[in-house]
Amino acid sequence: MVKDVTERWGIVYCPKGDMLVSPAKRWTKIEKCLKEQGVVYDYVQSENVGSVERLVKMMINNGYRTIVIIGGDSALNDTVNCLMQADREVREQIALAVIPNGLMNDFAHFWNIKEGEYSKIIEWIRQRRIRKIDLGCIRYTNKRGEACHRYFLNCINVGFIAAIMNLRRKTHHFFGSRTLSFVFSFLLLLFQRMEYKMSIKLNSDVIKRKVMTVCVGNSLGYGQTPNAVPYNGMLDVSVVYHPEVMQLFEGIYLFLRGKFLNHKSVHPYRTREVLFENTQNAMVGIDGRLMNTPKGPFRITVEQEVINLIIPTWKSF
């Protein structure tokens, strides 16, 4: 790396864990597009899940103004959490871009950034159209009694869907398809525990009853909060009560068709804050990755316009 890096891109390549295309071949395709468009960049490759934060911190500390993540939702989650640790003055000078390359690329899909369209995406990044976006934030106590917080771009799942998303990550490389891996994961979990007695405060409502799953979305929420947008200072929340068996299969169908909110067991909300007073130790997933279950109550809020994101030039609002 060189000292004067303000005009160079800092690229973190996070290899996808599948068996279809080798990481080296995929990077070769991306590298070719970068060279064809005359992009000046420095490149590092993550060795494992835990190395993304370390590499992004290195990019921030070395003064890069454009950080490009070639990865999925989890890699982006690590990146925004690193950016939020930086001073605001430093963060304001940095623009984040994504080339989708993960097991799940839901946040990229919100902006209609598609896998494999490397040349088009690189051209968008070069044009540097920046949109300030919101982040959700979960504040909780860990098992050691320490106060913690974690930011998210896409969503937090509590309950049954968190378990499905965790299993989906493990099965995706066998199927390749987002839809097939979701359906297979769902079928594997049909005979697992499917409801939890929860106590949730939403706006002026208090929910105290058995709940199957809750999604708090800053964005699409893997189809569970399809109307959420990461730039209105609000969170969309979908609370799903336990449906009958036939309604459950109807719910899968509507989910896959993008009409999740039409199901009679789904209750949507829009809010700035959600307080989970009790979840009966339900699993909690953040941006598609299972997190250690918080100890006791936890709160989810939104922080408005805190990240500079490079978006496609045609995207309108």
Question: What do you see in this structure?
Answer:
The protein is an alpha+beta fold and 317 residues long. It is 31% helix and 32% strand. It is built from 9 helices and 16 strands. The strands form 3 sheets. The chain has a 6-stranded antiparallel β-sheet, with helices on one face. Strands 12-11-10-7-14-15 form a 6-stranded antiparallel β-sheet, covered by helices on one side. A hairpin with a 5-residue loop joins β5 and β6 (147-152). α2 crosses α3 and α7 crosses α8 (178-188).
* Major sheet characteristics: 6 strands, antiparallel
- What gap, in angstroms, lies between the N and C termini? 37 Å
Average pLDDT, rounded to a whole number, is 84
Shape: elongated
* Strand order, sheet with most strands: 6-5-16-13-8-9
Based on helices, strands and strand pairing, what is the structural class? alpha+beta
Question: Which helices and strands occur, and which strands form pairs?
Answer:
Layout: E1 9-13, H1 23-36, E2 41-45, H2 51-61, E3 66-71, H3 73-85, H4 88-92, E4 95-100, H5 106-110, H6 118-127, E5 130-141, E6 147-152, E7 155-159, H7 160-175, H8 178-188, E8 196-202, E9 205-211, E10 213-217, E11 235-240, H9 245-256, E12 266-271, E13 273-278, E14 284-286, E15 289-291, E16 298-310
Parallel strand pairs: 1-2, 1-3, 3-4
Antiparallel strand pairs: 5-6, 5-16, 7-10, 7-14, 8-9, 8-13, 10-11, 11-12, 13-16, 14-15
Helix pairs in contact: 2-3, 7-8
